[in-house]
Design a protein that fits this description.
This protein is mainly alpha-helical. It has a single domain, classed as DNA polymerase, domain 1 (Orthogonal Bundle). Helix content is 56%, strand content 0%.
Length: 149
């Protein structure tokens, strides 16, 4: 598929979510505005599988390609991170399973998500790719703020 991942996910959010959970017109407009202002987010298409190596190479070249553009800024909690990627509905599920830090989420697998009831493949891909990207972003942020001794 040649559709950029972020647009594909936006369409899925509009189609798959319950009516009350779907993005509002203003949220969609805001997201499209961000995509227009940051065209690098449109580079990855559906044929590209997000992997740690792909995310690392994109981040290393100062291109922040994410499932949702907001993921580029470091976040401080799992709840905040889930909100930023539009999957806050899994907050209680992940917390009950002991996934309370971003570090712990790095161990999350597709099989574990199936066991937890997170069965939508696109949501699983988003969770795995964006937690890897978030951790890389935080490591880069730490490198830039370290003071040489």
């Amino acid at each position: 598929m040649d559709c950029p991942v972020v647009l594909h996910q936006l369409m899925l959010d509009c189609w798959e979510r319950e009516r009350a959970e779907r993005p509002t017109f203003s949220q969609i407009l805001n997201m499209l505005d961000k995509l227009i202002r940051n065209p690098g987010t449109l580079r990855r298409t559906g044929g590209d599988r997000p992997t740690a190596a792909l995310l690392e190479s994109e981040l290393g070249s100062e291109v922040c390609v994410s499932v949702l553009p907001e993921v580029c800024a470091p976040v401080s909690s799992v709840c905040e991170w889930l909100r930023s990627i539009g999957l806050e509905r899994y907050r209680d599920t992940l917390a009950a399973a002991g996934y309370t830090t971003l570090d712990s989420l790095l161990a999350l697998t597709h099989q574990e998500m199936d066991r937890l009831g997170i069965i939508t493949a696109s949501h699983q891909d988003i969770l795995i790719a964006s937690v890897q990207q978030e951790m890389l972003s935080q490591m880069q942020h730490m490198q830039h703020t370290m003071v040489p001794v």
